[in-house]
Amino acid sequence: MKKLLFISGSLRKDSYNTALLKEAEKILNESLNCSFLSYSEIPYMNQDIEFDEIPSIKRVRKEVEDSDAIWIGTPEYNHSYSGVLKNLMDWLSRPLVAGDYSTAVIRGKKVAISSVAGSSSGSFAREKLKEMLHLFSCTVCEKEIGISLGKRFSDATLILTEEEKRNLKMECQALLEMLD
Ligand SMILES: Cc1cc2nc3c(=O)[nH]c(=O)nc-3n(C[C@H](O)[C@H](O)[C@H](O)COP(=O)(O)O)c2cc1C
Question: What is the pLDDT of residue 92?
Fold first, then answer.
């Protein structure tokens, strides 16, 4: 079975973005081997330590390298993706061998994206995320879901509307076709 790695751009315990990824996992886990990347402990990118043997960095790079695709769900922070996600992507984008960018684990990866945010539904964050992913020569899934929380902002859990459920299923289907 092919491997899908979910990456939530929110470290929040009750994150709506993580909740949406879990809904996608429920749809996909019969077809794909799904797991979630844990990366809250990785250090900030700093070129002084870039080629040090950092166990958490080795682990996240290996998990990304071993996956056939990743699904990034990001909140929108000030019209962009979150800072923790940017820091992770900076680590994943750097070469394992100095100067040889083809060795970066994110390079050429198949990626699905989603966002749960305020009124913009995370459209600014998704556009900026796609811009960065294109820099890494990633193939981005043609379907993507953006959810505007509206009145659900303070709800304990994310309850999807019927239309959102349909859109999520369509993105899952498009991802499966990408992996065929
Ligand atoms: C620092 C910060 C900036 C934010 N900026 C935006 C924004 O520009 N557009 C938007 O739609 N929502 C914005 N939000 C709202 C978040 O996108 C929203 O709370 C989202 O649900 C957080 O994701 P999570 O539930 O996965 O943690 C912002 C929230 C924070 C904390």
Answer: 98
